[in-house]
Amino acid sequence: MGEFLADIYPWTKSLHIVSVIAWMAGIFYLPRLFVYHAEVVISGSETDSLFQTMERRLLKAIMNPAMISTWVFGLLLIGTPGVVDWTMIWPWSKGLSVLLMTWFHMWLGARRKEFASGSNSLPGRRYRIMNEVPTVLLIIIVFSVVFKF
Questions:
Q1: What are phi and psi of 41, to 5 degrees?
Q2: Residue 83 DSSP code
């Protein structure tokens, strides 16, 4: 299996990067939609329905598949011989950051359900603040992988 993974390494790495880009695009955009949804939109209005549709489609059609493929290709990379040195700090810092990014994704999914049920209680400011979480995690992930400290 290791030899096969080594042979397809460029494909696996490329598909992992594409998946991460798609996931991050959604993970940055959905909280921005929540900001405007919380601050401007009246619950039960046509605009509320439009925002709910955009949020649901973004999460279900883009973010969820991108997160899953990020994990699949990332795990394949982990299984590729010579890619990860577990005696270093970087795979652990990246792994923890990916777990936290996944938690953030799930947190966004729970907030989307609250908007859908008309029970969102968080103000736009909270979504603005929370939108910084993936930025910090992305910085940790990229620096971990590039510098391999």
A1: -85, 135
A2: S
